[in-house]
C-alpha cells in the first residue's frame, strides 16, 4: 500500500470508518470541487462493500456531506442530509454490485447549471481515495496533490503548450497522464502539481488553443 | 520506508535520532521537515481532544452497542482500584475513550485506522501526562510510530480488509510499542524490536465485527492492545529481542493475512459477527 506519513497518522476524521466514512466524504468533496462548489442534483450508485456496509458506517451521510462541501473531519457531517435539504441539493441513492470495480466504489452523476458530469471514485483504504473516471475517460488520481483535468482536442502542440505554461508560472509538474478517445478526437491531460493553482493559472490554461475545459481539484487534506 | 533494517541503518550511518531518520527518509528539505513536525504536533492536540471527549461525553453510538465504557473504566482507575496500576489503567481508559468517540461519529485521528485509533495515542498522551514529556517529545514519538506504520504499509498492509485485525490493531500496537520504547530512551533497535514483538503476538488476529460496525470487538480491543503495547516496549527496553528479525515478522504478518479466509477480513461473515447474538443484533439494526 505504501502509506505516506499522514496516511498513517491520519486522516483527521469523523468516525467510524476510514474507508467507509472518511474516504466517502473525501470522494464527495472531490466531486464538489470538480463542480466548482455547487451541485443541484446528484444521482449516486454505491457498489459492493460500500453498498453493503454503507448505512452503518455513514457512507451515504459522509458522501452527501462531501458533495455539499464539508471536509472529512467536520462534525456537521452528521447533519449532512438535513444540510443538503437546506441547500436545495437533490440526491438519489441506489445500491449495486460490480466485480470490475474496487470494493468501495461510488459512481455519481452530478448536475449544476454549468455542467453535468459522471464520476467514478473509490475509497482504497485509510481514508485515501482514487478518482477513476470522468465521463468517458479512465485514470487514477489520489487528490493528494493539486490536480488539473484538462480536456482538449488531440492536436499538435497542446500538451507542449500546457507544460510550457506551467514552467512559465513556476509550477512543478509531479505527474502527467495523457489519453485520448481516438486519434484527433477528445483528449484529457491530467497534471498533478507541487504548487497551488490560482484562478490566473486556470485562466491561462483555458486560453491555450484547443483546450476546451479545465477542472481543478485542490489537494484534499 | 522499505524496511526496519533501512531505518536502523539510516540512524547509525547518519547518526540520527529515530524520528530524525524517519523525516530524512521522507524529505531532504528542512522546511518540509519543520512543516511535517508542526502538522504532527497539531494532530497530537486533536488526539488529546478525542480522549477528553471520550472520557466525559455521555453519547453512545447509534447502535447503542458502545459508549461510556471508557468513563466506567476511568472511574475505576481514578478510585485507585485498577489492577493495572494508575499509569497502565489510564492508558487503557484513554484507548477506550478514543475508540468510543470513533464509534459515536466524533472526531478522531486514524492511527493507522479509525478502528484502531485509540491504541497508540492513548499511550503517548498518558505517558506525557504521567512523566512530563513535552509536546515536542511526544510529537517525535508520533513520528517514530509513523515510521513503523510506513514500513508495515510497504511490506504488508494496514487494512483489515486485506490483513484482518493483525493489520489494524496489530500495526497500531507495533506503532505504540515503538513510540513508548522511544520515549523511555530506547535506541532504534530497541524500538523496532518492541514493534516486532507486538506484531508477532497479534498474528492471526481476525476482523469479524458484529453487524459490520466498528464497535464490537473493536472498542474494547483498543483498551486491551493499548496495554499490550507497553508490555512489548518494556520487554524490549530490558534487552529482550525478537528471535525472528523484525522485517521477517512483518512479512509473516502479510502472508498470514493473505492466507486468512475472507470471512475473517472485515466482511462480518465469521467469528463474532455470526454468533447467535451477533446475528440477532445485525437483524435488529438493519432488518
Outline the structure in words.
The complex is a heterodimer of chains A (about 220) and B (about 290). Chain A has about 220 residues and is of the alpha+beta class. Chain A has two domains: about 10-135, 60s Ribosomal Protein L30, Chain: A, CATH 3.30.1330.90; about 145-215, ACT domain (Alpha-Beta Plaits, 2-Layer Sandwich). Chain A has seven helices and eleven strands. In chain A, the strands form two sheets. Chain A has a six-stranded mixed beta sheet with strand order 3-2-4-5-6-7. A four-stranded antiparallel beta sheet of chain A has the order 9-10-8-11, sandwiched between helices. In chain A, strand 5 and strand 6 form a beta hairpin. The longest helix of chain A has 17 residues, at about 20-35. Chain B has helices at about 5-15, 20-25, 30-55, 70-80, 85-105, 120-130, 135-155, 160-165, 165-185, 190-200, 220-235, 245-260, 275-285, and one strand at about 105-110. Chain B is mainly alpha-helical and about 290 residues long. Chain B is globular. The N and C termini of chain B lie far apart (about 45 Å). Chain B has a single domain (about 5-285), classed as 2-methylcitrate dehydratase PrpD, CATH 1.10.4100. Chain B has 13 helices and one strand, in the order αααααβαααααααα. Classes of the chains: A alpha+beta (about 220), B mainly alpha (about 290). The interface between A and B is large, with 36 and 46 residues. Strand 1 (about 10-15) of chain A pairs antiparallel with strand 1 of chain B, so a sheet runs across the interface.
